Amino acid sequence: MPSHTPKESLAVPAHIQSRLEGAGLRRTLATRAVLGVFLANPQGSVTHSQVQTALETRGLDINRVTLYRLLDRLAACGVLRRHADDGARTWRFGLAGAEEAGPLARFECDACQRQFRFTEADAAARAVAAQLFHSLARLGHQGQRLELCVHGTCAACAAPAGLESIA
Questions:
Q1: What φ, ψ does residue 145 adopt, rounded to 5°?
Q2: For residue 109, what pLDDT is reported?
Q3: Which pLDDT belongs to residue 67?
Q4: Which domains does the chain have, with CATH numbers?
Q5: Contact, 131 vs 90, CB < 8 A?
Q6: C-beta of residue 151 within 8 angstroms of C-beta of residue 110
Q7: Cα(first)–Cα(last) distance of the chain, in Å?
Q8: pLDDT tier at 19 (50, 70, 90 boundaries)?
Q9: How far is CA 3 from CA 6, 27, 138, in A?
């Protein structure tokens, strides 16, 4: 069994460590470095090339194909969320939340690409989600999760220049 230094164990939240172990992913230098990019900006949403640039800035040269595979594996095990950036015709990745049960709703700012998760869903939203899963089941499909993303401009980006410091 590999040993980890206490500093290393504290750097990765328990829910992420659990998902990595559950998927059989090792905590290689590349894995830790990529996780570091996302943990440094938990609400961020970045492309593959932005992750690669961040790693290169830190002095790490990871092959682009290796990075694509690692990002996909981290998304497959629930550590990252992957979604399409329709405007740029590319995938964006963001850190997944600790919660996995129920619908995941988020607001994504089209200006800064930050994501804001709705941590609580009211009864009406849960009912809509249940109805969608029920409709899929009637068609013979097996829905596993529901992700809802509202796009727009966050309060920080929408604030006129200079006004954000007044509040």
A1: -155, 160
A2: 85
A3: 94
A4: 1-98 (1.10.10.10), 100-167 (3.30.1490.190)
A5: no
A6: yes
A7: 52
A8: confident
A9: 9, 11, 49
Rounded-to-integer distance, Cα 73 and Cα 70, Å: 5
**Confidence band of 7 (pLDDT split at 50, 70, 90):** very low
Pairing assessment for the beta strands 104-109 and 147-152 based on DSSP bridges = parallel
Q: Is the dihedral of CA 131, 134, 138, 142 positive or negative?
A: positive
**Is the Cβ–Cβ distance between 93 and 75 less than 8 Å?**
yes
Query: Dihedrals φ, ψ of 115, to 5°?
Result: -115, 140
The pTM for the full model equals 0.59
What CA–CA distance (Å, rounded) separates 84 from 97? 18
Q: What sign has the CA pseudo-torsion 149, 105, 155, 122?
A: positive
Q: How confident is the model at residue 37 (pLDDT cuts 50, 70, 90)?
A: very high
Token pair 């796009």 is found at 151
The whole-chain average pLDDT of the chain stands at 79
DSSP characters over 126-148:
HHHHHHHHHHHHHTT------EE
Which residues, listed in sequence order, are joined to residue 92 by a DSSP beta bridge? Answer: 47, 83
Closest CA to 19 of 30, 7, 31: 31
